[in-house]
Amino acid sequence: MSTSETSLSKKIQSPTLTKNQKIVLDLLENSSEPLKAYSILASLQKEGLKSPLQVYRALDKLVELGKSIKLKAKIPLLFAITRIVQILAILYLPFVKNVKMSERLKMPNFSRALAN
User: Fold this and answer.
1) Which domains does the chain possess?
2) How far apart are CA 56 and CA 53, in angstroms?
């Protein structure tokens, strides 16, 4: 296989992301909770995203590429309940001996999740 054929097959295997897809993915990766499309739009308007359609297209492509997941409407409620339980546990832990502070503050990372 020639060098040009090798580089072509790499491009086919790992598609490059558009500017919008990159900035949406970056926001999702740096978020500690699932994000809705309109929240993403509000956060990224300074980056050049102007319409919900741009966000939805970027999200659809990221889901298609396996770089993000799409949550159903009931899933964010599960995350909210989980967060409440975590906060209650953190409030309770000071009363428990032999628990390190670093263990008290551990939170799950929802960076690849987004809500519809």
Assistant:
1) 17-115 (1.10.10)
2) 5
